[in-house]
TrEMBL record:
<keyword id="KW-0969">Cilium</keyword>
<keyword id="KW-0963">Cytoplasm</keyword>
<protein>
    <recommendedName>
        <fullName>Cilia- and flagella-associated protein 36</fullName>
    </recommendedName>
</protein>
<dbReference type="InterPro" id="IPR023379">
    <property type="entry name" value="BART_dom"/>
</dbReference>
<dbReference type="InterPro" id="IPR042541">
    <property type="entry name" value="BART_sf"/>
</dbReference>
<keyword id="KW-0175">Coiled coil</keyword>
<dbReference type="GO" id="GO:0097546">
    <property type="term" value="C:ciliary base"/>
</dbReference>
<keyword id="KW-0966">Cell projection</keyword>
<dbReference type="InterPro" id="IPR038888">
    <property type="entry name" value="CFAP36"/>
</dbReference>
<dbReference type="GO" id="GO:0005930">
    <property type="term" value="C:axoneme"/>
</dbReference>
<dbReference type="Pfam" id="PF11527">
    <property type="entry name" value="ARL2_Bind_BART"/>
</dbReference>
<feature type="domain" description="BART">
    <location>
        <begin position="8"/>
        <end position="65"/>
    </location>
</feature>
<comment type="similarity">
    <text>Belongs to the CFAP36 family.</text>
</comment>
Length: 67
């Protein structure tokens, strides 16, 4: 039976994927486009808005979508 060193390529492949453009570009684009509604008020408070749930649902769909 192979040791954990024999499976290191699986971990390396996953890390490479997460740092690659297939994962990073859509994620960074989403964050840049959707971050403005989350700006705090002048007092530093972040209000609870209906848009937050919608944006969160869109984010969950983005990160759980199979490639």
């Amino acid at each position: 039976m192979e040791g954990s060193d024999g499976n290191a390529w699986v971990f390396d492949s996953l890390v490479g994927f997460l740092h690659g453009p297939v994962w990073n570009v859509p994620l960074q684009t989403f964050i840049e486009e959707k971050s403005l509604p989350f700006e705090p008020t002048e007092s530093g408070e972040v209000l609870d808005r209906i848009e937050y749930k919608k944006t969160h649902d869109e984010y969950r769909n983005l990160v759980s979508k199979p490639v």
